[in-house]
Structure formats: structure tokens, C-alpha cells
Specification:
This protein is of the alpha+beta class. Helix content is about 30%, strand content about 15%.
Length: about 375
């Protein structure tokens, strides 16, 4: 294995895109074969990345949420084609925004629609119904209560008919709470985080110290400039008691790779404990939303909460078919290639760089492993 090109690529990211720092880990056959930390984790660029940094991973949370949903489905506690209103009745009657007001939706919202971003919602975190509920609770809005309020929001399209990246997975977080009768974080800790030894993963800063937080910045591809972001800002945290299934997880690189490795191993921990049926993982990566437009990653489609590699038509990706994963608003990236037994996680704190970095990084990983 020769990772020299990959290392050079990572070390060039600050000069090319203003990426302050990052941490990439690559597992093959269940063992770490590459780990490279580069740059700095603090605003002043005085603290080199050491590998124990704490990241807000934003949408990389979605892989965790949808895996939990698949666990409930394969255990017979939830149905993929069940109506959302079976679990949260407030969603029994929905309306779609129309030119002259609103029209009643004909289709019910189903669990599969939420997983495939096909329910009709948008990412309107500032919607008045959300803001009003947060104000009514004195800022302490919780997950289930907030999601119930989302039932008052107008949909953008008929459920099941299109694709729109949205609050769907936050709603799934509330479904998990209803089915399990637990807070989302408690369910995840009991069923995934603790069995995997992910003791530095939560939905709030309940571990570590502030000097380990990875400072965040946004890169503007048009101007080539980066702008700092407040260290503890998360606009997807809709209340102090809210746990976002779509963007709420806080973790470390060492912790998240354990989750990715579990998926790569078909749902089993290193010590042989099954956390989710392989059939659930397989369904998650192969149930495609054909209404979804192309990703910035060529030959990929959206499945049940993950992007998945569905074609070699353009020979752009060096990973196997049905390699899957997702990324996050500030550069986080995970990849699970079951066929080649490769699990990857990249911790980062720079937004606006995913399309510029992830495809090349993926290919360099696979070239080094060939």
C-alpha cells in the first residue's frame, strides 16, 4: 500500500481551499491501515490536530439515524411502508403549498418517504411554527414536541413524488423516540454507542473539554476566502432539549470509525455482537429514490438515508458498487465499502469543500489500497 499521494493531497488542502485541518482514518479488513492528521484545530492555528478533537458532524448524523430506523424495521417494531401518522398522529392530514394558498395532500407520508427525503419537507429551520414553539417553551423545545409542530408546516410537494433534502431525518428521530419510548440519545447509547465503545459521542457536549472542540469555518469557492463560524453554533438544534436526528451528533474520529466499521462488518461489533441485521444495511444502501437528481459524486444515487454508488457508467469512482455513506456541512465524510471491506471517516471543520475534496480523496484511498 502506498498512501503518499493521499498524504500529499491532504497536506495541500489548506493552500488550495483554506481548510484549516482534518483527520482521516482508513480501515481495511477491520484494521486501521492509514491515519493522517494535518493542520490545526483552533481559530488561531496554534493547536495542531492530534486525533482527539471533538467535532459537530452535522449530516453525518443521518447515517446513524437511518441505521437505527433499519434496526427497528428488521426487528419488526416499525414498517418501512408504515404511515408516519401511525406513530405521530399529528401528521395524519397534511397540506401542500399552492400558488393561491394550500391544497390537501393526497398521499400519506410514509417512513420510506422520510428516509429517502421524499416526504415533501424542506430545511426550513426558521419556520414560524418551529420558532413559536421554541419561544413557548422558553427555549427548551424537545425533539418530539418540536416534530409534532412540524406537522403544521406546508409541504413543498406531494409525499413520495420527488426529492428534497430536508428535516425528514429529524422527524425520524422523533419516530425512534415514540417506538422505543426513549430519548433519541438514550436509544442510541444503549443500542449503538455504548456497545461500540463510542463513549465520546452524544447530542450535546457531555464529554471532553472545550480545548478539544474543532473550530469551524466556511470556504467560499467563488472568492477563495474562508470565514470563521462561532464555535458552538448549530442552527439545527431547535431547542435546548432538542436532539437532531439529521444533524445533531457530536463525536470524535476514533468514535465514528467504530460505527462505520460496524456497518462494513454487516452490523456486527468487533466482539461479535449483532447491533443491526445485515438485511437492514443491505436494504438501506440498495433501495433507491429514482426521483432524486444527480449528486456532486458522479454515478451515485440516494437510497435510505445514504448516498450509494449505483453505476460505473462514467468510471469516476474506484469504489465497489453499493459503496455507501454520507457527509456533513463542515466537511465530515464517511464511506462504507462492504465488498472491498473498507471503512473510512474524515473529520473536518470547513464548510463548502465537500464537492471539491471528497471525490478525489475517495479515489486516492482506493488507489492506495489496490
Amino acid at each position: 500500500m502506498d498512501f503518499s499521494k493521499l498524504t500529499d493531497f491532504l497536506d495541500s488542502l489548506n493552500e488550495r481551499f483554506g481548510i484549516r485541518g482534518g483527520d482521516l482514518i482508513v480501515n481495511k479488513n477491520g484494521e486501521t491501515v492509514y491515519r493522517h492528521q494535518f493542520g490545526f484545530s483552533d481559530k488561531e492555528c496554534k493547536r495542531p490536530v492530534q486525533g482527539n478533537e471533538i467535532y459537530r458532524i452535522y449530516s453525518c448524523s443521518k447515517v446513524i439515524t437511518c441505521t437505527a430506523v433499519m434496526k427497528l424495521i428488521t426487528e419488526g417494531k416499525l414498517g418501512l411502508y408504515d404511515n408516519l401518522s401511525d406513530y405521530i398522529p399529528e401528521f395524519g392530514e397534511m397540506y401542500i403549498k399552492a400558488e393561491n394558498g394550500k391544497v390537501k395532500a393526497e398521499n400519506p407520508i410514509r417512513i420510506i418517504d422520510l428516509m429517502q427525503m421524499a416526504a415533501g419537507f424542506t430545511y426550513d429551520c426558521g419556520n414560524p411554527v418551529i420558532v413559536n414553539y421554541r419561544n413557548e417553551t422558553g427555549g427548551k423545545a424537545d425533539t418530539l414536541g418540536t416534530v409534532k409542530e412540524m406537522s403544521k408546516m406546508l409541504l413543498a410537494f406531494e409525499p413520495g413524488s420527488a426529492y428534497c433534502y430536508s428535516l425528514c431525518h429529524d422527524i425520524l428521530g422523533a419516530v425512534i423516540e415514540v417506538v422505543s419510548k426513549q430519548k433519541l440519545s438514550d436509544f442510541m447509547k444503549e443500542n449503538f454507542f455504548y456497545p461500540l465503545g463510542m463513549y465520546e459521542t452524544d447530542y450535546k457536549y457531555t464529554f471532553g473539554s472545550p480545548d478539544r472542540y474543532f473550530w469551524r469555518q466556511s470556504y467560499n469557492a467563488q472568492t477563495g476566502n474562508t470565514t470563521d463560524v462561532e464555535a458552538d453554533t448549530n442552527w439545527f438544534e431547535l431547542g435546548s432539549e432538542y436532539e437532531s436526528g439529521g444533524a445533531g451528533v457530536i463525536t470524535t474520529v476514533d468514535d465514528y470509525i467504530k460505527f462505520s466499521q460496524m456497518l462494513c462488518d454487516g452490523g456486527v461489533t468487533k466482539d461479535g455482537k449483532r447491533l443491526v441485521a445485515f438485511e437492514g444495511i443491505d436494504l438501506m444502501r440498495k433501495t433507491i429514490n429514482e426521483n432524486q437528481s444527480a449528486f456532486y459524486m458522479t454515478d451515485y444515487k440516494y437510497a435510505l438515508g445514504v448516498r450509494t454508488h449505483v453505476s460505473n457508467e462514467h468510471s469516476f469512482s474506484k469504489s465497489a458498487l453499493y459503496e455507501f455513506g454520507w457527509d456533513g456541512a463542515f466537511g465530515a465524510y464517511t464511506e462504507i465499502d462492504i465488498e472491498n471491506k473498507i471503512a473510512v471517516y474524515f473529520g473536518c471543520g470547513t464548510g463548502g469543500i465537500n464537492a471539491l475534496v471528497h471525490p478525489d480523496m475517495r479515489n486516492l484511498i482506493h488507489e492506495a489500497l489496490e
